[in-house]
Structures are given as C-alpha cells and as structure tokens.
Specification:
Strand content: 15-25%
Bound molecules: pyridoxal-5'-phosphate
Largest sheet: 7 strands, mixed
Oligomer: single chain
Strand order of the largest sheet: 4-12-11-10-9-5-8
Shape: globular
Structural class: alpha/beta
C-alpha cells in the first residue's frame, strides 16, 4: 500500500500566525491591515501553487515576506493606468478611444474640484436642466432644432427607439443589421427597446421600394444605421437618407440615422472618405441623428442626439433618460470639446483625435526622424531602432477601408524575439502597445506624441532589464 501523500502546502504558516509575525507589524503600518491581509492571502496562494508544482521548493520565512512585499507593491498600483499607444489605431476602443483636448481636461478638472451649476439656473435661482449646457452649442454647430446628450451612443439609440417605437415596428435594411464590438447589435438593442425589427431588402442591396413595401400601420420609424466597421463592396445598392426621408414624409413617419462615429467636419480632403458630417444627414431630411462623443468627435464617452425638437422633447420625458444620463465630468469635457469646433482650424489642431488622423505624411516622416534621434539619446545603443514605411487605421469603427500612410519605428533587442518584446512591453510602467509585422516589433509614429518619448524610453529600458533578468 502506498501511504497517502502529505499535502506539500501543510508546511505554510496559517493566516493568523503569519499576521502575528513582527515583520508584519511594520508592513501593516505602511499599507493598512486590510491591504496587508489581502497581500498575505495572495502570497500564501502563490506559495501554495509553487509547492504543489514542486514540493521541494524552498519557501522560507524571508521568501514569504518578500512575496508579501511584492504583492503590496502590486496592490498599490492603480488598475486603470495610462498606456502608450504605438499601435497606430487612433480611435482604439480597448485603449479608451479619444484622448481629450487640453481645454476639455481642464474643464473636467475644474468641474471635479468643486460644485457647479449642473442643474441650477443661475439666472432664476431655480432648478435647471443639465442638458442645457451643450444643447445650444450642438444646435449652433449642426443646424439642428434641438439636441440631447446621454451616456454613450448605444444609450442614445436605445433611448430613441424606446421613446419613439416601443410596441411598434422599426424598418431597417438587412445590410445595416450591424454588430459593433461584440456587445452592441442592432437587433438586440431593438428587442431591448420593445420595438419590433422589420428587415427590408437584402444584405447587399436595399431599394426604396423595399422600405415602402415594409411600411404598415404598426410602423413607427425608419432607421438607417452606419455600417461603421465593415463595408459591402461589389454589387450593392443603398437607399440614401434623402430617399428614406421622402418615403417617410409620404407615410408621415420619422427617419432616424445612427451615424455611429459621427463627425462634425468633412475629412475627405485628408484622404479620409466614407464618413459624412452629421449635419448633412439633417439636411437630407433625417429627423434624428445619434452618434458617439468619443470616436471621431474626439471628446469624452457620450452619446449625442440631434434633430427635431418635438422628438427630443419626448425623449427628455422618457424615464429611461435618467438611467442613461450623462455625468457632470463628461458633460464638462464635451462642452469644451464642442467649443473647439466653432473654428475648424482650431478643431483640427487642438483635438488630438483629429490632429492624429489628419497629420500629413511628410510631417509624420519629420516627426519620426526627430523621435528616432531623441530616443537614441535616451537609450543604450544595444536597443536598436529603425524607421520603416507603413499604414495606420483610423479605428473605432470608422472608415474600415481607409489606411493612412505612416512611419513606423522598429524596436529590437538582441536575441529577444519580437513577440517576447511585445509581451514584455505590456508589463512595463507605463505599458506600451505596439504591433508585430513580419517578426518585427513596430511603433506607429501617428499615435505617439513627443511627450511620450521619455516614458517610452523608460519602458524600453525596463523591458530590456526584464529580458536580461532571465
Ligand atoms: C460605435 C457605434 C455605436 C455604439 O456607440 P458607443 O458610443 O460605443 O455606445 C452604435 N452604433 C454605431 C453605428 C457605432 O458605430
């Protein structure tokens, strides 16, 4: 008979014993009892795993204390942190979409610091409306009769459908039943709003007649959705907003456009085509347009709704509005961002998302050269840097077919494969996100800024140390 094996973890101290060690008293003074307990629990778990892996692992008292100290350092670092984006994807949803303009950052901080007239009418001393702070500005910039802002564009679409079409039917082209980033799907949002989806046309072609035929006495709305992150090419036909508006007018129905990214400027002159400014949907006869605040607009996470005042008024009275309302910090940042659009040149120069998207290739090349020079002065010579030509993508579900010429900085460490360098740079402080192409680790100059360089150099040095430590 084989005797039952002893659990290799039984030699580890129990939690109460561990917390009573004199070394722990000093640590508790620095980090507080609750954090220390969490760190000790994690350290014991790690030690247990090491022992299960190899029962002969030496887990001394000093080693346990060392592990607890390491855990404490990890717990002291915020989970949400700044990341250097070298991916070249300007509107990167996983990296927080748009960096905010300086004036928006200042407005946000000022509002966070104290009290504000968020819902207080300073002229009358009575209760005010939070939406008033940007409504006039949005109307001024887009020519809309009225406007409303909510938490994000998904909320804007949900609110609009719930208000205008619950219990009734909404007609959408089969070519526009999109999914955006996994969790936003037009059919699901429709179901959530209580409206019934009526599909018109086919995946590649939807004609005005398809919409006309789909209209019944239950129809509440004709909806057009920007296909954002994909493109149908080849034998295609799309019914324009103007055609939809004509059909809707005949049937006395409203037309709504979910413009997705939504921009206020025409970017075609910068090689970025396929995205029409939101105000043009209104000119073509749309009654409502919804779009995101943190995609092409370049502001904070918000959902903007512009259009007919009667429809906006109904949405303001819907109970769902309270559940999707915008918070004061986003509102402050949004107002500051929108103000920059009063002057197109100012918007292009001071809104980081627009600036990165519209930087001419020659300017990027000059920036790349100067970044390379600067990095070389900050880094040891065995970290090799080299420039290449490449392409960057706008991202954020905008312009799926657009690729912008850019310059790339290749970073290489001797004897460290690109995929290993990529992984090491994700755990530096700050982490650096780049991309791998043909076994090269590359940083796209388009999404880097000169201010990033000292931090980037620091991260590259940390990655080199980590690689050498093995
Ligand atoms: C991005 C997008 C959404 C969702 O917007 P969020 O601001 O992320 O909520 C909805 N519809 C379309 C067409 C989009 O592109």
């Amino acid at each position: 008979m084989v005797p039952p094996k002893k659990d290799p973890r039984s030699g580890l101290p129990k939690m109460d014993k561990l917390l009573a060690w004199p070394e722990m008293t000093a640590l508790a003074g620095q980090s507080g009892r609750i954090t220390l307990r969490a760190a000790a629990r994690n350290a014991l778990k790690t030690a247990g795993l090491l022992l299960q892996d190899n029962p002969l692992t030496d887990i001394s008292r000093t080693r346990i204390i060392g592990m607890i100290e390491e855990e404490l350092r990890r717990l002291a670092t915020p989970s949400l942190k700044r990341v250097i984006n070298g991916s070249g994807v300007v509107i990167h949803t996983n990296l927080g979409r748009s960096p905010l303009p300086e004036t928006a950052r200042e407005a946000l901080l000022e509002t966070a610091r104290g009290y504000s007239n968020l819902e207080f009418d300073l002229a009358t001393g009575e209760r005010g409306e939070r939406y008033c702070h940007v409504e006039d500005l949005l109307c001024e910039l887009t020519g809309a009769e009225a406007a409303l802002v909510v938490n994000n564009n998904a909320a804007a679409v949900l609110l609009a459908l719930s208000t205008l079409a619950a219990g009734r039917e909404v007609i959408v082209s089969r070519g526009e039943l999109v999914e955006i980033g996994g969790s936003f799907r037009i059919p699901d949002v429709m179901a959530q709003s209580g409206a019934t989806l009526v599909e018109a046309g086919t995946t590649n072609r939807t004609h005005p007649e398809d919409y006309r035929r789909a209209i019944t006495e239950k129809t509440a709305l004709l909806l057009k959705v920007h296909t954002s992150n994909f493109a149908v090419v080849g034998f295609t036909a799309e019914t324009s907003t103007a055609e939809l508006a004509a059909i809707a007018a005949g049937a006395q129905l409203p037309v709504m456009v979910d413009a997705g990214s939504g921009c206020l400027l025409d970017l075609a002159g910068f090689g970025i085509s396929g995205e029409q400014p939101v105000q043009t949907y209104l000119k073509e006869g749309a009654d409502l347009v919804t779009f995101s605040g943190d995609k092409l607009l370049g502001g904070p996470q918000t959902g903007l709704i512009i259009g007919k005042s009667g429809l906006i008024r109904q949405m303001k009275r819907h109970p769902l509005l309270r559940a999707v309302r915008i918070d004061k910090l986003s509102l402050a940042a949004l107002e500051a961002t929108l103000r920059l659009y009063r002057d197109e040149r100012q918007a292009l120069a001071r809104i980081p998302t627009l600036r990165m998207l519209t930087t001419p290739a020659a300017e990027l090349a000059a920036q790349a050269r100067s970044m390379l020079r600067r990095l070389k002065t900050l880094l040891p010579s065995d970290i090799r840097l080299k420039l290449h030509d490449g392409l960057s993508s706008p991202g954020g579900g905008s312009f799926p077919l657009v690729q912008l010429p850019t310059r790339l900085i290749e970073v290489a460490l001797p004897a460290v494969p690109a995929h290993r360098l990529e992984a090491l740079l994700r755990s530096t402080s700050p982490p650096v996100v780049g991309r791998i192409q043909q076994d090269r680790f590359l940083l796209d100059v388009r999404t880097l800024s000169a201010e990033d360089l000292p931090l980037l150099a620091g991260s590259l040095r940390q990655a080199q140390e980590a690689a050498n430590a093995r």
